[in-house]
Amino acid sequence: MPNLHAVVQAGGRGTRLAPYSTVLPKALMPVGGGCVIDNLLARFSAAGVKTVSITVSAFGPLIRSYCGDGERWGLEIEYIFEEEPLGTIGPLNALRHTVRDPFFVTNSDVFADVDLDSVLSEHREHGAPLTVVVTRQVVNIAYGVLEHHSGMVTDFREKPSQQFSVSTGIYLMEPSIFDHIPPSGPFGFDELMRTMLARGVPVNVYEHHGSWIDIGRVEDLRRAQEHAELAMRAPA
Ligand code: GDD
Ligand code: MG
Predict the structure, then answer these.
(1) Which atom of ligand 1 is nearest to the CA of 188?
(2) Whose CA is nearest to atom 17 of ligand 1?
(3) Using CA atoms, how far apart are residues 182 and 92, in angstroms rounded to an integer?
(4) Does the domain formed by 5-134+166-233 have CATH 3.30.830.10?
Protein backbone atom coordinates (compact mmCIF):
# COMPACT_ATOMS: atom_id res chain seq x y z
CA MET A 1 0.00 0.00 0.00
CA PRO A 2 1.65 3.29 -1.09
CA ASN A 3 1.91 6.23 1.30
CA LEU A 4 -1.11 8.21 0.09
CA HIS A 5 -0.53 11.92 -0.31
CA ALA A 6 -2.96 14.78 -1.01
CA VAL A 7 -2.52 18.38 -2.09
CA VAL A 8 -5.00 21.13 -1.24
CA GLN A 9 -4.77 24.22 -3.45
CA ALA A 10 -5.62 27.09 -1.11
CA GLY A 11 -3.78 30.11 -2.49
CA GLY A 12 -6.53 31.80 -4.52
CA ARG A 13 -7.84 35.28 -3.83
CA GLY A 14 -11.54 34.34 -3.60
CA THR A 15 -12.64 37.72 -4.95
CA ARG A 16 -16.15 36.47 -5.86
CA LEU A 17 -16.72 35.77 -2.18
CA ALA A 18 -16.08 39.34 -1.05
CA PRO A 19 -16.49 40.80 1.53
CA TYR A 20 -15.98 37.51 3.46
CA SER A 21 -12.85 36.65 1.49
CA THR A 22 -11.19 39.94 2.41
CA VAL A 23 -10.68 38.59 5.94
CA LEU A 24 -10.80 34.78 5.47
CA PRO A 25 -9.53 32.40 2.79
CA LYS A 26 -12.20 30.19 1.18
CA ALA A 27 -10.71 27.14 2.91
CA LEU A 28 -11.67 28.63 6.28
CA MET A 29 -15.24 29.66 5.44
CA PRO A 30 -17.61 28.24 8.09
CA VAL A 31 -19.65 25.20 7.02
CA GLY A 32 -21.25 22.68 9.39
CA GLY A 33 -19.39 22.30 12.67
CA GLY A 34 -16.13 23.61 11.21
CA CYS A 35 -14.94 25.05 7.94
CA VAL A 36 -14.63 23.88 4.35
CA ILE A 37 -11.16 22.43 4.76
CA ASP A 38 -12.23 20.31 7.78
CA ASN A 39 -14.48 18.24 5.53
CA LEU A 40 -11.71 17.75 2.95
CA LEU A 41 -9.06 16.77 5.50
CA ALA A 42 -11.42 14.40 7.34
CA ARG A 43 -12.28 12.68 4.05
CA PHE A 44 -8.64 12.35 3.05
CA SER A 45 -7.79 10.88 6.41
CA ALA A 46 -10.66 8.37 6.19
CA ALA A 47 -9.43 7.33 2.73
CA GLY A 48 -6.00 6.43 4.10
CA VAL A 49 -4.12 9.62 3.22
CA LYS A 50 -1.21 10.15 5.61
CA THR A 51 0.44 13.36 4.39
CA VAL A 52 -1.04 16.57 2.97
CA SER A 53 0.55 19.61 1.32
CA ILE A 54 -1.48 22.80 1.45
CA THR A 55 -0.40 25.39 -1.11
CA VAL A 56 -1.04 28.88 0.20
CA SER A 57 -0.41 32.57 -0.40
CA ALA A 58 -1.25 35.64 1.71
CA PHE A 59 -3.66 33.78 4.02
CA GLY A 60 -1.13 30.97 4.57
CA PRO A 61 -0.34 31.87 8.20
CA LEU A 62 -4.07 31.88 9.05
CA ILE A 63 -4.62 28.49 7.39
CA ARG A 64 -1.56 27.11 9.19
CA SER A 65 -2.77 28.40 12.52
CA TYR A 66 -6.15 26.67 11.97
CA CYS A 67 -4.95 23.33 10.57
CA GLY A 68 -1.66 23.13 12.47
CA ASP A 69 0.37 19.97 11.97
CA GLY A 70 -2.77 18.00 11.04
CA GLU A 71 -2.73 15.83 14.14
CA ARG A 72 -6.45 16.22 14.82
CA TRP A 73 -7.20 14.46 11.52
CA GLY A 74 -4.40 11.94 11.97
CA LEU A 75 -2.50 13.66 9.13
CA GLU A 76 0.91 15.25 8.68
CA ILE A 77 0.44 18.63 7.03
CA GLU A 78 3.11 20.74 5.33
CA TYR A 79 2.54 24.25 3.98
CA ILE A 80 3.89 25.45 0.66
CA PHE A 81 4.01 29.24 0.45
CA GLU A 82 4.08 30.96 -2.93
CA GLU A 83 5.20 34.49 -3.73
CA GLU A 84 3.23 34.93 -6.95
CA PRO A 85 -0.03 33.24 -7.98
CA LEU A 86 0.72 29.91 -9.67
CA GLY A 87 -2.86 29.05 -10.61
CA THR A 88 -4.85 25.90 -9.88
CA ILE A 89 -2.16 23.42 -11.08
CA GLY A 90 1.18 25.33 -11.11
CA PRO A 91 1.69 25.00 -7.31
CA LEU A 92 2.10 21.21 -7.78
CA ASN A 93 5.62 21.86 -9.07
CA ALA A 94 6.76 21.97 -5.44
CA LEU A 95 6.20 18.16 -5.44
CA ARG A 96 7.63 17.41 -8.88
CA HIS A 97 10.74 15.65 -7.61
CA THR A 98 9.31 13.97 -4.52
CA VAL A 99 6.06 12.19 -5.44
CA ARG A 100 6.43 8.49 -6.24
CA ASP A 101 2.83 7.27 -6.01
CA PRO A 102 -0.62 8.43 -7.13
CA PHE A 103 -1.76 11.50 -5.18
CA PHE A 104 -5.03 13.34 -4.64
CA VAL A 105 -5.35 17.01 -5.52
CA THR A 106 -8.26 19.20 -4.52
CA ASN A 107 -9.39 22.77 -4.63
CA SER A 108 -9.85 24.13 -1.12
CA ASP A 109 -13.29 25.59 -1.79
CA VAL A 110 -15.31 22.45 -2.47
CA PHE A 111 -17.83 21.02 -0.05
CA ALA A 112 -18.60 17.49 -1.20
CA ASP A 113 -19.16 13.91 -0.07
CA VAL A 114 -17.03 12.23 -2.74
CA ASP A 115 -16.17 8.58 -2.03
CA LEU A 116 -12.39 8.84 -2.32
CA ASP A 117 -11.88 5.07 -1.93
CA SER A 118 -13.92 4.50 -5.09
CA VAL A 119 -12.05 7.26 -6.90
CA LEU A 120 -8.79 5.53 -6.02
CA SER A 121 -9.95 2.08 -7.12
CA GLU A 122 -11.41 3.36 -10.43
CA HIS A 123 -8.21 5.32 -11.05
CA ARG A 124 -6.10 2.18 -10.49
CA GLU A 125 -8.34 0.17 -12.79
CA HIS A 126 -8.01 2.63 -15.67
CA GLY A 127 -4.35 3.53 -15.25
CA ALA A 128 -4.39 7.00 -16.89
CA PRO A 129 -2.14 9.76 -15.49
CA LEU A 130 -5.20 11.75 -14.39
CA THR A 131 -8.68 11.01 -13.04
CA VAL A 132 -11.03 13.99 -12.80
CA VAL A 133 -13.99 13.73 -10.44
CA VAL A 134 -16.99 15.13 -12.31
CA THR A 135 -20.58 15.84 -11.38
CA ARG A 136 -23.76 16.75 -13.28
CA GLN A 137 -24.86 20.37 -13.24
CA VAL A 138 -28.09 21.58 -14.80
CA VAL A 139 -28.33 25.02 -16.36
CA ASN A 140 -31.90 26.35 -16.64
CA ILE A 141 -32.75 28.98 -19.24
CA ALA A 142 -35.54 31.25 -17.95
CA TYR A 143 -36.77 32.16 -21.45
CA GLY A 144 -38.23 30.70 -24.62
CA VAL A 145 -35.32 29.78 -26.88
CA LEU A 146 -35.50 30.13 -30.68
CA GLU A 147 -33.22 28.60 -33.28
CA HIS A 148 -33.25 30.52 -36.55
CA HIS A 149 -31.67 30.46 -39.93
CA SER A 150 -31.87 33.12 -42.70
CA GLY A 151 -34.42 35.11 -40.69
CA MET A 152 -36.81 32.14 -40.18
CA VAL A 153 -37.48 30.25 -36.95
CA THR A 154 -36.41 26.62 -37.27
CA ASP A 155 -37.00 25.44 -33.68
CA PHE A 156 -38.45 26.64 -30.39
CA ARG A 157 -38.05 25.40 -26.79
CA GLU A 158 -39.79 26.97 -23.79
CA LYS A 159 -37.44 27.40 -20.80
CA PRO A 160 -35.15 24.49 -21.67
CA SER A 161 -32.47 23.11 -19.39
CA GLN A 162 -29.15 21.58 -20.28
CA GLN A 163 -26.93 19.20 -18.34
CA PHE A 164 -23.16 19.42 -18.20
CA SER A 165 -20.52 17.20 -16.64
CA VAL A 166 -18.35 19.62 -14.67
CA SER A 167 -15.00 19.21 -12.99
CA THR A 168 -15.41 19.21 -9.20
CA GLY A 169 -11.83 20.41 -8.69
CA ILE A 170 -10.95 17.01 -7.17
CA TYR A 171 -8.43 14.81 -8.99
CA LEU A 172 -6.20 11.79 -8.64
CA MET A 173 -2.87 12.09 -10.43
CA GLU A 174 0.08 9.87 -11.27
CA PRO A 175 3.61 11.30 -10.95
CA SER A 176 3.71 11.18 -14.79
CA ILE A 177 1.27 14.13 -14.77
CA PHE A 178 4.39 16.32 -14.50
CA ASP A 179 5.22 15.46 -18.13
CA HIS A 180 2.30 17.74 -19.01
CA ILE A 181 2.94 20.60 -16.58
CA PRO A 182 5.63 23.22 -17.32
CA PRO A 183 8.29 23.11 -14.58
CA SER A 184 7.70 26.65 -13.34
CA GLY A 185 5.26 29.54 -13.48
CA PRO A 186 1.48 29.81 -13.37
CA PHE A 187 -0.53 26.96 -14.89
CA GLY A 188 -4.26 26.27 -14.66
CA PHE A 189 -6.38 23.12 -14.79
CA ASP A 190 -7.83 24.41 -18.09
CA GLU A 191 -4.32 24.50 -19.58
CA LEU A 192 -3.56 21.02 -18.27
CA MET A 193 -6.72 19.64 -19.89
CA ARG A 194 -5.99 21.31 -23.22
CA THR A 195 -2.37 20.08 -23.18
CA MET A 196 -3.36 16.48 -22.42
CA LEU A 197 -6.16 16.44 -25.00
CA ALA A 198 -3.87 17.91 -27.68
CA ARG A 199 -1.26 15.21 -26.92
CA GLY A 200 -3.84 12.44 -26.96
CA VAL A 201 -3.08 11.47 -23.36
CA PRO A 202 -5.98 9.59 -21.73
CA VAL A 203 -7.87 11.33 -18.93
CA ASN A 204 -10.34 9.32 -16.82
CA VAL A 205 -13.49 10.66 -15.28
CA TYR A 206 -15.04 9.46 -12.05
CA GLU A 207 -18.73 10.34 -11.88
CA HIS A 208 -19.78 11.62 -8.47
CA HIS A 209 -23.52 11.39 -7.79
CA GLY A 210 -23.62 12.81 -4.27
CA SER A 211 -23.49 16.40 -3.12
CA TRP A 212 -20.95 18.92 -4.36
CA ILE A 213 -20.83 22.69 -3.93
CA ASP A 214 -18.04 25.10 -4.91
CA ILE A 215 -18.48 27.71 -2.16
CA GLY A 216 -16.86 30.42 -4.32
CA ARG A 217 -19.93 32.70 -4.43
CA VAL A 218 -21.94 33.99 -1.46
CA GLU A 219 -25.13 32.17 -2.52
CA ASP A 220 -23.22 28.89 -2.88
CA LEU A 221 -21.56 29.27 0.52
CA ARG A 222 -25.06 29.78 2.00
CA ARG A 223 -26.30 26.66 0.21
CA ALA A 224 -23.38 24.62 1.58
CA GLN A 225 -24.10 25.91 5.09
CA GLU A 226 -27.79 24.97 4.82
CA HIS A 227 -26.88 21.56 3.44
CA ALA A 228 -24.43 20.91 6.30
CA GLU A 229 -26.98 22.10 8.86
CA LEU A 230 -29.58 19.64 7.55
CA ALA A 231 -27.04 16.80 7.49
CA MET A 232 -26.09 17.50 11.12
CA ARG A 233 -29.76 17.44 12.19
CA ALA A 234 -30.59 14.25 10.28
CA PRO A 235 -30.86 11.09 12.45
CA ALA A 236 -27.73 8.93 12.16
N1 GDD B 1 -1.86 27.87 -4.40
C2 GDD B 1 -2.70 28.47 -5.23
N3 GDD B 1 -2.23 29.43 -6.08
N4 GDD B 1 -3.99 28.12 -5.19
C5 GDD B 1 -4.83 28.75 -6.06
C6 GDD B 1 -4.42 29.75 -6.96
C7 GDD B 1 -3.04 30.10 -6.96
O8 GDD B 1 -2.56 30.97 -7.71
N9 GDD B 1 -5.50 30.17 -7.68
C10 GDD B 1 -6.54 29.45 -7.22
N11 GDD B 1 -6.14 28.61 -6.24
C12 GDD B 1 -6.96 27.69 -5.46
C13 GDD B 1 -8.13 28.42 -4.80
O14 GDD B 1 -7.79 28.81 -3.47
C15 GDD B 1 -9.21 27.36 -4.83
O16 GDD B 1 -9.18 26.53 -3.69
C17 GDD B 1 -8.87 26.50 -6.04
O18 GDD B 1 -7.51 26.76 -6.37
C19 GDD B 1 -9.75 26.80 -7.26
O20 GDD B 1 -9.67 28.17 -7.56
P21 GDD B 1 -10.99 28.97 -7.95
O22 GDD B 1 -10.59 30.37 -8.22
O23 GDD B 1 -12.06 28.73 -6.94
O24 GDD B 1 -11.36 28.27 -9.33
P25 GDD B 1 -12.79 28.11 -9.99
O26 GDD B 1 -13.77 27.63 -8.98
O27 GDD B 1 -13.13 29.37 -10.70
O28 GDD B 1 -12.53 26.99 -11.09
C29 GDD B 1 -11.81 25.81 -10.78
O30 GDD B 1 -12.59 24.96 -9.95
C31 GDD B 1 -13.81 24.44 -10.56
C32 GDD B 1 -14.49 23.50 -9.54
O33 GDD B 1 -14.82 24.17 -8.39
C34 GDD B 1 -11.47 25.13 -12.12
O35 GDD B 1 -10.53 24.11 -11.85
C36 GDD B 1 -12.73 24.58 -12.81
O37 GDD B 1 -12.35 23.82 -13.96
C38 GDD B 1 -13.50 23.67 -11.86
O39 GDD B 1 -14.74 23.24 -12.48
MG1 MG C 1 -13.83 27.58 -6.94
Answers:
(1) 35
(2) 107
(3) 10
(4) no
φ, ψ of residue 8 in degrees (nearest 5): -115, 120
From the alpha carbon of 85, which atom of ligand 1 is closest? Answer: 8
Nearest ligand 1 atom to alpha carbon 87: 8
Bridge-partner residues for 212, per DSSP? Answer: 112
Query: Computed from CA positions of residues 148, 154, 157, 162, in that sequence, does the dihedral angle turn out positive or negative?
Result: negative
Domain segments of the chain as ranges? 5-134+166-233
- One digit per residue, pLDDT tens: the chain, 236 residues? 568 999 999 999 899 999 999 999 999 999 998 999 999 999 999 999 999 999 999 999 999 999 999 999 999 999 999 999 999 999 999 999 999 999 999 999 999 999 999 999 999 999 999 999 999 999 999 999 999 999 999 999 999 999 999 999 999 999 999 999 999 999 999 999 999 999 999 999 999 999 999 999 999 999 999 999 988 888 76
189 lines ligand 1 (CB under 6 A): yes
The Å distance, Cα 147 to ligand 1 centre, comes to 35
